Structures are given as C-alpha cells and as structure tokens.
Amino acid sequence: MINIKLASTYLYLLIYILLSSGVILYNKWVLSPKYFNFPFPITLTMIHMGFSGAVAFFLVRVFKVVSPVKMTFEIYATCVVPISAFFASSLWFGNTAFLHISVAFIQMLRALMPVATFIMAVMCGISKPKCDVFLSMWLISVGVVISSYGEIHFNVIGTVYQVIGIFAEALRLVLTQVLLQKKGLTLNPITSLYYIAPCSFVFLFAAWCLLEKTQMQVSQDQNEFNYWIFFSNALCALALNFSIFLVIGRTGAVTIRVAGVVKDWMLRALSTVIFPESTITGLNIIGYGVGF
Questions:
Q1: pTM of the predicted model, to two decimals?
Q2: Is residue 162 within 8 Å of 99, Cβ to Cβ?
Q3: N-term to C-term CA, the chain
Q4: Given this model, what pLDDT does residue 25 score?
Q5: Strands, E assignment, 91-221
Q6: Minimum mean pLDDT among 19-23, 104-108, 141-145, 197-201: which range?
Q7: Where is 226: in which H helix or E strand?
Q8: Which DSSP string corresponds to 151-181?
Q9: Nearest of 212, 182, 203 to residue 53 by alpha carbon
Q10: Sugar phosphate transporter domain: from which residue to which, for each copy (predicted)?
C-alpha cells in the first residue's frame, strides 16, 4: 500500500530539486553572452526581488495567506536592512559570476559555503573555533583549490565574484540568526519576502542606477525587451522560494541540505549537456569529492 504522506514528501523534494536546478540554468542562459545575451545581472536580480516582493505583498495584505509579524522601525532598521543588503549582494555577485564561469564550476565553488558560514559565525561571536571543525573547513578548502586547478576555463574575475557572493550569503545567514532570533522574530519564506525583497530591491536599484542604467538604455534601443522571458524567469525564482517552504515544512532543514547535495551533482551533469563549454575534468571531480 502506498504511503501518501511519504510519497508527497518525495514529490516536494523532487519539485525543489527541479526548480532549484532550473532557476540556476535559466539564469545562466539569460545572462550568458553565448545564449540569450542579457549581461545585466543587477537588472535580472532586481526583477526577481520586485516580482517576489509584489507577490508577497498580495499574499500577506490582500489574500491574507499569512499574517505579518510585529515589526517596529528599530527592528526593521537594525535587522531587516542589513540582512536585505547582504541578501541583495549575494544574489548580485552570484548572478554576475554566470557571465564568466560555468555552472558546474560555480557549484563546486559553493562547497565553500560551510567554510564561509563558519568564518562569519566566529567573527560575529556565535561560534568558537574548534580543531575538528577547523580540520573539516581546511579539507573543504583544499577540495575547492583542487577543483579550481582542474578547471579548464578558469576565470579569476568570475571566481572572485562567486566567492564574494558566497561570503555575502554566509553573512546574511549569520545575521539572520544573530539579529532576528535575538529579537524573537520568526519569518517564513512568505513574510521573509514581504519584508526583505522590497528592501533588497532598493539596494539593487541604487547599484543599477550607478552601474547598469546607461548600458541598459543603449541595449534597449538596439534590442526589444522580451517581457515573457523575464516574467517566466522571475516566476521560477518565486516558485523555488515556495518549494523551499514546502520541503522545510514537511521534512526539515537537514533534509533540504541533503537534497541540495543531490541537486548539485545533477546540476553539474545537466550543465555539461545544456552548456557544452561547461566541461568537468577528473581534477574537478576529485576536488569536489574531497570537499564534500
């Protein structure tokens, strides 16, 4: 007899893996000069945040799917604003890396996330350096170095962007734990988007005005803006956030982390098929194996 609850849990995990992989591949296709050729990562990220914030507003204020939390100006200024800034930075730099390096190599570099999170946690005083943890972090770093050495199309600029994005994401995670939990706030993905997405949009808009506005105007004069591509891309990103909510609600953060490992391996294989330039070498595999 089929266990409906267990089957639905596996279905949610499958949806999460497919959406997470799909969003990454879709972003790469949109941004890459070899494909859709929209080399404006800030603009793409800003579209995601604007769309997610608008949908979250309707879900919270109009349809009342969830209730907003008690948010004061002091909490918003000291918690939401810095978290939003680093969230916007992590997405911005992570998407910029797509312009320079392959999806497979990006996923290998993301093995540094535990290292970055540990370093940020120690700096913020919520973790203490321990010998066993330090050894694990050292092994992960060695694995990433081996993968980088084995990367055929290694690009320094793209690697730097991705590493900065990883550390920005790590700092966002640590700040979320330090600031929001200290204030006793609990945000689910919908209320997180409701508060954080609009603020992230403002940060991205400021960067867009300085770095991409002029280039966008020139590009728009030469090419027609494809609204369907960007709407579907933003919709996929929003669906991914909701799938994370469903998986965590059904299983937990540990299970979604394991599913993320499965997704990483699948994504590397898919990226080599969809993007022929995304070649995986033996050293790449060895390096990721050491890091994992």
A1: 0.87
A2: no
A3: 36
A4: 93
A5: none
A6: 141-145
A7: none
A8: -TT--HHHHHHHHHHHHHHHHHHHHIIIIIH
A9: 203
A10: 11-290
